[in-house]
Amino acid sequence: QVQVMESGGGLVQPGGSLTLSCAASGTIQMTESMGWYRQAPGNQRELVATVTNPGTIKYADSVKGRFFISRSRDNTRVDLRMNNLKHEDTATYYCYVEYTDAMSFRRVEVWGQGTLVTVPS
After folding, report:
1. Closest CA to 27 of 109, 102, 95
2. Do the Cβ atoms of 76 and 23 come closer than 8 Å?
3. Contact 13, 74 (CB under 8 A)
4. pLDDT given for residue 96 in this prediction
């Protein structure tokens, strides 16, 4: 069974930096993409940054130039380095991994429980 777990959230002052880490465990043979979404209170979950298996990276416009996503070569870990944090970055950050099941060939998404990042105003 594939599981995803985030770590690294916390309280950081405006302008500060934080790195979120995400580890995927279990048997994943065909990773399609990994990445981060976030959800602030009262808002919908939104994309932050994703990286596909070939290495294509996508960022939300609001974080471009401040956040940087990286993944391990074996696709078991994806990190999000967040610089120059702003109050509006306050949210619960969720990691996901999307893979193709080797038996059914279906796309599967697995999400973590989320980690809270708080940037006071």
Report:
1. 102
2. yes
3. no
4. 96
